[in-house]
Amino acid sequence: MLRGVALLGILLLNILAFGLPGEAYFSPAVDGALSGVNFAAFATVEVCFEGVMRALFSMLFGAGVVMLAEGRGAGPYYRRQVLLLGFGLLNAFALLFSGDILVTYALAGLVLYPLRSWPPRRLLIAAGLVFVWLGIVYGSLFAAVGSPPDNVVPTTAAAGTGAPSSPDRHAALTLRQEVERYLEPSREDLERDARAHTAPYPIAFAANAENVVETWTGAMPWTMFWDALGCMLLGMALYRAGWLQAKRPDRDYAVLVACGLVVGLGVNGTELAMRLATDLGMQWTPAITTPTYDIGRVATALGYLALVMLACRRGLVPRLRRVLAPVGRMALTNYLMQSTICLIVFHGLGFGLWNRLDRAELYLVVTAIWAFQIAFSRWWLRRHRFGPAEWLWRALTYGRLPVWRSGA
Q: At what angle do helices 318-329 and 331-346 cross, to 10 degrees?
């Protein structure tokens, strides 16, 4: 059920990458979502879901590492990760989704097998160290971008006269320029983004591939890999401590709901307020330059996780559980299906709706995709034991064909 929540929720953010120019993911000014229902959609997703569903999805992946590693050797585990890498490359390149997360998960998962037996305390310490690293990265970018312009002018002037310049100022200027280029792309970057969504498939493939490689080489070593790894380690710790199996007392879950949501939504709301107060200042851009980013998103994810576990323990949502659990059981199939559907809806290959819908209208598309995936997942799993992608993944991992039909 948790995986179903995370899988459906992650589309709230991914839809922006599918349906709007890439920079709209980071700034509502790109698509003019600065007032009315479009701004309400932006603010709600920004505070309640941005980075949150990805964190929850990553935690559950980490828990899956522990479950899959128990009683199995290293061979099947590493084959599974390499195959996941293949699914990710298919999603990123063939399905033209530059925001793919599977490649990152495959790479992060490769380092987790030796940690599968670590106790919860050690896993939490390791996760904490990863988040400290991310805080340092985001803090450095925040300081560079937020520095008054006159702090970097002397460096530029010195470079023009041959006079020695401060290494610190030079580094700050370089970081500032990189972030500005990312958030305020050149005409060439914008044209390439348009080609990746509107051109005939061969041209779109090449343009999208360039976007993908640029994103991975620029962000993977510094943030993307560590973002996934930190949450995976946290998920492993939660599983080992019984949190994800609903084994903790109700009081523990209630405390985590309260603390997680108060802290998480409070931090997220404060970050949004600072963005608005600074006229969408670059230094408050989530996932790029905000040093408190992981505090807000991870705390909120933990609050949602505890809320679902508490509801399950008390039997409050049996019908909702029956609806969401099949989606979670087919998470890989449904993730790839989202890319396929959005390729058809937004790309020139299909209906060509890229950059033609308002932000709020995109969430009507999200609702329709949710409804279809919920219905399809329930229908499929009444007849089959695994989703199509899960069946193929399992067959290639273990070198034998799993039972296909339910009851067979």
A: 80
3-class SS string, 22-89 = HHHHCCCCCCCCCCHHHHHHHHHHHHHCCCHHHHHHHHHHHHHHHHHHCCCCHHHHHHHHHHHHHHHH
Q: What stretches of 278-358 show up as alpha helix (H) in DSSP?
A: 293-313, 318-329, 331-346
Residue 238 lies in a domain: yes
Could you report the per-residue pLDDT of 265-291, keeping only the tens digit for each?
A: 999 999 999 999 999 888 899 988 999
* Residue 374 scores a pLDDT above 90: yes
Q: Residue 86 has which token pair? A: 């293949």
The domain in which residue 392 lies consists of: 2-398
State how far the Cα of 386 lies from the Cα of 371, in Å rounded to an integer.
Answer: 20
Strand boundaries in 100-140, DSSP class E: none
CA gap 22, 15 in Å, rounded? 10
Residues 346-362 pLDDT 10s: 998 899 999 999 999 99
pLDDT > 80? residue 29: yes
What is the CA 58 to chain-centroid distance, rounded?
8
Q: pTM of the full predicted structure?
A: 0.92
* Rounded Cα gap, residues 290 and 309, in angstroms: 30
Tell me the β-bridge partners of 405.
384
CA-to-CA distance for 226 and 232, rounded, in angstroms?
10
Q: Under DSSP, is residue 315 helix (H, G, I), strand (E, B) or coil?
A: coil
Which among 221, 5, 229, 8 has a CA at the least distance from the CA of 105?
A: 229
CA distances (Å), 168 to each of 66, 124, 171, 405, in order?
A: 43, 34, 5, 63
Domains in the chain, number: 1
Mean pLDDT calculated for residue range 219-231: 95
What angle in degrees, to the nearest 10, is found between the helix axes of 359-383 and 318-329?
90
Q: Please indicate, yes or no, if residue 406 is contained in any of the structural domains.
A: no
Asked if residue 403 belongs to a domain, the reply is: no
Distances in Å between the Cα of 393 and the Cα atoms of 79, 84, 285, 373, 399 are 10, 8, 36, 20, 10
Angle at 129 between CA 123 and CA 135, to 5 degrees: 140
Higher pLDDT, 281 or 212: 212
Domain assignment present for residue 404? The answer is no
- Residue-wise pLDDT for 109-136, tens only, equals 999 999 999 999 999 999 999 999 999 9
